User: Fold this.
Amino acid sequence: MEADRIRHRRALWASFVGTGIEFYDFYIYATAASLVFGQIFFPPGDPGVQQMAAFATLAVAFFARPVGAAVFGHYGDRIGRKATLVASLLTMGLSTTLVAFLPTYAMAGWIAPFALCVLRFGQGFGLGGEWGGAALLAVENAPPGWRARFGSAPQMGAPAGFIAANGLFLILGLWLTPEEFAAWGWRIPFLLSAALVAVGLWIRLRLGETPEFKAALAEAPPPRVPLGEVLKRHRGALLAGTIGAVCCFATYYIATAFLLGWGTKSLGYPMQDFLAVQLVAILFMAAGIYLAAWLADVRSDPRRVLAGGCVLIALIGLLIAPLMGAGLMGAFLFLSLLLFGMGFVYGPLGAWLPGLFPPRVRYTGASMTFNIAGVIGGGLTPLIAQALALKGGLAPVGLYLAAAAILSLVALIWSRRHQSPSP
Assistant:
């Protein structure tokens, strides 16, 4: 029993800390893209066009994520979860740290945005293998009745990484002048990633393999091509899981990347004030994640909790225009509501998506669904939202968010036939 408790603690800690570091890396890029990348990595011109170019680089990582999911999923299902998670963390961390050393457009011309996109691809490639492995590490070590709550550990890494990333940018904004921040201050969060990755590696290298992976290997040899088996035997689960997860990505990148840029540059809110509002509002996301996971365990059905979250997001999305235009308190109220709802469409994913696939192809299946959903729901969302807002204000952005929620709701209802029984 004591050995099981130690294994549970290590799995939860490794899943949470490793994913928190990975999401810190991902979010410092999104924050810097919202604040300064448009003006320093692209040709001088209209600020709105520069911002759209910066948001376009965000999409590069989302298209890299399914590639990373296929590669890391292949090895995760064949040789094990532990080694694959170490490799994904190293890939993400190296790509992030190197951003700190990039030249600006004024220094290197077109080489600057090209190099930025290459490193952004590396970020997405590494993150493509991170979430699926971390979710499996948690749920495949979970005791009976705790699968969704254990599966929420990597989900909690998202608000933790966001708080670390935006908190650091907030401190830098208070410490430095706008000119100093644009010249060199934005590089500091990328440099610090190297130290965080070293901590994550130390934690993950102490892990063993999960019981369910060991049992799957004892039953049969690993699949030669896990992705091929997923596409051949689990196409319905792959489609349902992918569309069912779209809402969480659309919600998150509207609440963070898009609204940070729009709130500070179009609505005129001071950067430090808006970052502070986002930092407090993200705590509502953490509360929503745990509450949703607890409900999923109580009801033994993460799918229903996710469906309820989609309805909530569709309704909240319609409030974006009046609340965001009502001053900082209105923005805080909207972001708090939206991110709390985000917890309900995100928290139970750690239990639901792995449950769609058997253990022998679970790393590949869960990673592919999550990361293809990222392409659809998150990759182009800040860019689309920026274009919609430039033409019609925030109301069309709210309708876009509601449409994403309804799309996921339909997939969740349809997915019932593909749910695997919990072990």
